[in-house]
Amino acid sequence: MVDILQTGISGLRASQRGLATTSHNISNVNTDGYSRQRVEQDTSIPHYHSRGAIGTGTQVQTIQRLSEDHRVDALRNNHAEYERLDRLAEMTGRIDNLVADQDAGLSPSLRQFFDAVEEVANDPSNTVSRQQLLTQGQALADRFHTLDNRLLTLEEDVNKRVRAEADKINGLAESIAELNGEIRSRWTNPQRPPNDLLDQRDEKIRQLSEHVTVRVTEQDDRSLNVGIGNGQPLVTGDRANTLEVTRNAFDPERPELAVRRGDREVQITSAVQGGSLGGLLEFRNGVLDETRDEIGRVATSLAGAMNEQHRSGIQFDSGYPEAGDDFFDYAREAGVSAHRGNAGDGQPQVVIDEERIGDLRRENYQARVVDGQLQVLTEDTNEVRTLGTGEDADIQPDADGGYRFDGLILYPPDPEAGDLQEGDRFLIEPTRNAAQGIEGRLSRPTQVAAAAPVVTGEAPREDGQTENTGRARIGPPDVGRADGVMAALEEGGALQQGVEMTYSDDGTFNVTIGGDTVGTFEYDPEDPERGQVVNLSEDVEPVSGAAAEALAELDISVRISGVPDDGDRFGLYGNYEGVGDNTNALRMAELMEDTVMDNGNSTFQEAYSAMVGELGGFSQRVQTNRDAQEALLNQAKEQWEELSGVNLDEEAANMMEYQQAYQAAAQIITSADEVFQEMLNAVRR
């Protein structure tokens, strides 16, 4: 009788546990991270007799949590990658929309500015056209400001998000550490795992993976160690390290990340991958910085080229021809930041090399002192170049002590202003903030140097008539170094006296200044129609030292074409009445189509359009990868749900099964009670 009763009671208890577990599953169907649980039953120890074993019922071995590590890991990893791509797609799309916008982008302002230059070239005497050029010049500068300000606002937003992400990660790390401690204390019997605590811990780690890629390692005491970055421990057992927001070693305003372990701080910014935090840092340190660098490079190149050409012309603001001033103000010095750990107090100066402005690259550099010499490291390509005077130096100094590379000139610090110590480092950002510094410089329409300082044509006789009989022609002048040319306009200067070229049958031109012969050059073009370009300072053979000195100041190029006759003469004269001259305005208008940038391979518009195209392509790839990753994440969720998710239909069936088993077990107990009562009644009789 006891055996029957105990057997019934064991079934009753097992069914009761099954009903409780099923109820628990149903109640947590909407609980994030909950893994369904299942009662694992086994037979009780039977009673053995000579004729066999008689069963004694059932017993509950454990409440099993249906979960597999590889499915959980897949869910975490796919979450981390999806969040990275999602954040990267969001932020990159915002920049893409900005720079490619037909109204807010740079392209329309560039076109409008050079359209205004062409209007001045078409009617250089028109004050309205000149004023419109000044207006469009400032409008172009304002557009550079607007673009860079929008990018700076975006950077501030990213930096705020980075700080918020760090706070969230620290909160999750504390929770995981607490759960580790509680699980370790409660999991004393391998057959009695704290399932709900394990679910909570897995869910916290999954939430952590949304912010950053994690590496999870299980310990012997059932706790999980969680690492981020390049393996830096964030959670070790029941202790959580702190993810701190620190200052960049070169820029205190730029937040970086470090893991603090006691008194030790380990920088991990460059190692952080995956999750929304990884996506934000990848965007900031990649797309955002590169876009600001490129827009600044376009601004610097445009301002430098425009200024150089404008200085080659003359303006009549005072009524007398004077050299054109800079058209734009812009940042001629590159940004140089000292590392906070530097031992020395000196700092190099880096300026834009205006003579080689087309060599500027979208690169940042680090200058560092190694073995007493300065080295320049290109950050993107890791190219290292040594500066110095020795044979092993890659870059030798100029006469002024400057080192030229990539459109920049680096001047070491003056020993009296400060010294450099071994290991000192400096960050060089040539164009990062350049878009902020460009401004229109001119204030009056008469300051526009539309005219060239030189006029060319057939040399006249004393009566003002020309006597050339050949079919040769001389083109408009192209002024290089403007200083000497402007000096030649002064009283007694070469252009004031007149520079004339007379052709001889022997194929040479005789060059005179004020009637005195200063040199000769040969005229032998391959194609007479295209002619031959002659630079007075480089291509004329001087007849004496004084003549060479005079010619050296005349950096003027002209194209002579056609077939001249013996005695044909051409002249170059100072442009003293050139208010209506458009020669220099035409040269400025040609800058729109000149391949000024990328070592003579790109126009301003092409360089900007290449950046827009590159950014658009990257944005599209990220969006495509994000969509593909979303599909992979959904697959990982489905695979996890297949095993660990609660199915209400299945649980309803289980509940009915346990109810029936419970009722049957109760019936066994009832039957045992009836038999027992009958036996008692029989004894009483």
UniProtKB/TrEMBL annotation:
It is found in: Bacterial flagellum; Secreted. Keywords: Bacterial flagellum, Cell projection, Cilium, Flagellum, Secreted. GO terms for cellular component: bacterial-type flagellum hook; extracellular region. SUPFAM superfamilies: Phase 1 flagellin. GO terms for biological process: bacterial-type flagellum assembly. The keyword Protease does not apply. Residues 444-478 are annotated as: Disordered. Residues 5-34 form the Flagellar basal body rod protein N-terminal domain. It comes from the Bacteria. Residues 642-681 form the Flagellar basal-body/hook protein C-terminal domain. Residues 93-328 form the Flagellar hook-associated protein FlgK helical domain. Signal peptide: none annotated. GO terms for molecular function: structural molecule activity. Belongs to the flagella basal body rod proteins family. This is Flagellar hook-associated protein 1. It comes from Halorhodospira halophila (strain DSM 244 / SL1) (Ectothiorhodospira halophila (strain DSM 244 / SL1)).
